[in-house]
Write a structure and sequence with these properties.
single chain; mainly beta; 4-stranded antiparallel sheet
Length: 81
């Protein structure tokens, strides 16, 4: 079972023309989740996305997007003396 901790995210509009016909929106986020997997203490997740939108006409809107997610499993190290 994976428990989720509070996450941090950001959103910004990178490109916007007037009148707004084309826009480029970027999002980024990072979260840490507790893991119940043996030997793993937590999972660090980083997400990012870009969305490009263009209004060709009032009734035709074109959109393209790219999304990426990276997972890092943090191992629990136990030292014995």
């Amino acid at each position: 079972m994976v428990k989720s901790a509070p996450s941090i995210s950001a959103r910004t509009v990178l490109l916007e023309r007037d009148p707004v016909l084309t826009s480029l929106e970027g999002k980024a986020g990072r979260s840490i989740q507790e893991s119940d997997t043996a030997g793993a203490s937590s999972i660090l997740s980083t997400q990012g996305s870009l969305v490009l939108t263009h209004e060709l006409r009032r009734d035709i809107v074109l959109s393209a997007s790219a999304v990426t997610t990276r997972w890092i499993i943090r191992r629990l190290f136990v030292m014995t003396i």
